[in-house]
Write a structure and sequence with these properties.
mainly alpha, about 80% helix, 3 helices
Length: about 110
């Protein structure tokens, strides 16, 4: 009695392909998306700090925002990453809030 392993190997390869498609690919995509968003947040914080230093004077809010948006989008482009302008703006607004929030000091 001889066993044909070809069908067994083909079934195993099919099972591995399904597992890869169902489990591994979504996990990898989520991991990459999280890394891209972390990069966006870091770049937004640098851009906001740069805008604060580079643009001085009255009524500079819109100028600072425009500078930060351009800086973030250009830097992301250099890294081969894209986000829509609404997401970029939200990251910049979050960075502004983080930077301008009073730092809590612990008095123990």
């Amino acid at each position: 009695m001889q066993i044909d392993v070809t069908q067994f190997v083909a079934a195993l390869i099919g099972l591995l392909a399904v597992a890869l498609t169902v489990i591994a690919i979504p996990w990898i995509k989520a991991r990459i998306s999280a890394q891209r968003f972390c990069l966006l947040k870091q770049i937004a914080q640098v851009a906001v700090r740069a805008a604060e230093q580079m643009i001085q004077g009255q009524e500079t809010g819109s100028a600072k925002l425009a500078y930060a948006i351009d800086a973030v989008q250009n830097t992301l482009k250099q890294h081969g990453v894209t986000f829509d302008e609404e997401t970029v703006r939200a990251a910049i607004e979050a960075a502004v809030l983080t930077i301008s929030a009073p730092q809590s000091t612990s008095t123990a």
